[in-house]
Design brief:
Blueprint lengths: L37 E7 L3 H12 L4 E4 L15 E2 L7 H34 L6 E9 L2 H16 L4 E4 L10 E10 L2 H14 L3 E3 L6 E5 L2 E5 L4 E9 L14 E12 L9 E3 L7 E7 L2 E12 L5 H15 L4 E13 L5 E4 L7 E5 L5 H16 L21 H17 L9 H4 L4 E7 L2 E7 L5 E5 L10 E3 L4 E3 L6 E2 L5 E3 L8 E2 L5
Parallel strand pairs: 1-2, 1-10, 2-7, 4-12, 10-17
Antiparallel strand pairs: 3-6, 4-6, 5-6, 8-9, 9-10, 11-14, 11-15, 12-13, 13-14, 16-17, 18-19, 19-20, 20-25, 21-22, 22-23, 23-24
Helix pairs in contact: 1-4, 1-6, 2-3, 2-6
Amino acid sequence: MPMNTLKNGMPRDSKTVSLWQQGMQKPEFTIPPDFNKIYDVLIVGGGITGLTTALLLQKEGMNCILAEAYSIGYGTTGGTTAHINTYLDNSYDQITKDFGEEGAKLTAEAAREAISIVDELVTLHQLKCGFEYKPGYLYAETEQQVDQLLQTFEASLKAGVSVRSCDRIPIPAAFKKAIVYDGQAQIHPLKYITGLAEEFIKLGGVILENTFIREHKFQDGRYTASSDASTVQASKIVYATHIPPGINLLHFRNVPYRSYALAIKIPDEKYPDALIYDMQQPYHYFRTHQIEDEKYLIVGGADHKTGHGDPEKAFKELEEYTRLLYPSCSVVHRWSAQYYEPADGLPYIGRLPGLNENIYTATGFSGNGITLGSISGKILSDLLLERSNKYEELFKPGRIKPIAGFTEFVKANADVMYHFINDRFTAEEINPLIEFEPDSGGVIEFNGRQLAVYKDAVGELHILNAVCTHAKCIVSWNNSEKSWDCPCHGARYDMEGRVLNGPARRGLQKIKFSEV
């Protein structure tokens, strides 16, 4: 198993260990699949989107099989900070400008329904996952932020969101104005999706872990999806893989980002009983979570595009910011995770453009993965059951919005195209034997080839072809997570070249030192 391998615990696609992995035991799924059976739906991906979709479909009598490349919760769901919001990363004033008042109202309704879906599943199945309702505070620190806050406040009200002014916030930060959103929520994400998985299996669902779907083919009215060790047959496929594999339209409508988080202990035990957000760019966010008898303050932020920023610098900046508010705090965990920012601010949920009509996906969740992953499960299950869904058109992956998000779309794709083209011709020449410190890496140009070189703790070199197998961009080294990250579409690989995150389907080519 690549990357972090907690003994008997739930691993994740990173070297850093999230708070959620603490004390978790990796579940075992022992029901054998029937490889001769044609399942109704194959769900690829064992995170919040995949498991919510799988459970809702199985409840409706469909025969589903879920294939996860590693283990459930291995990707972003295991690294989220697990806020469940009606206050979204894309503010309602911006949504109103881009999609109109009705679009903003529908988005707000989708967020409320997402919280209700989680609540209903937790209650119905008595899932012990720390689900709690909390108020959500948003505060402004400058006059410019105050103006933006007022616009957000008015647009939120018009969209039907429950929000009000307030004169205090529950963290020791100076502020000029604040508002509070009612009915927000939080959860322990790994305990939650483990519960969903158990209920799915009780209903006859099948989970295949360590099953990386490399490709699918359509023939005789059904799909045959292949991994290294097996094939699965199904009438329909859902790619709940963060971003769908291969090269398709959605890779040019989403930009990958890394986000950072700390779990800290506060000596005076004055933990805020709320979700809190500032308005800096990138913004910071806070909440408290209790595991067993211990409380932790979770602080997130310092986001940057995947493969662009300095992860160690991001962690340092986040810790320095946290100590301005809590000088005597101690950091217990630090971790990072990946998300995709959509070009026009709303997620893409539904049929995958350009392919057979029975391929579905959900992506572009920004920093609202638990919320949007949950509503994705409902939208996708309705579509697969051939029911209408009121959010279908708004979140349709093939939507064409020539105005909404156009400027950011151009900027994002200009950056992708820069790497797509420029990475093929330039790289700094260095000698890895001399320049690289132990347990570090980088891309070098050597004898006309671009190589991804990692020097391990004992000085041994691990050499890979630096060309991403997805769209042929050049990967960059992430020293915090000890991974190779692609700056174009967010594919990530471990030190041995194995795929950690799609959309890549195959690992980086290994190169022997004698071949260099």
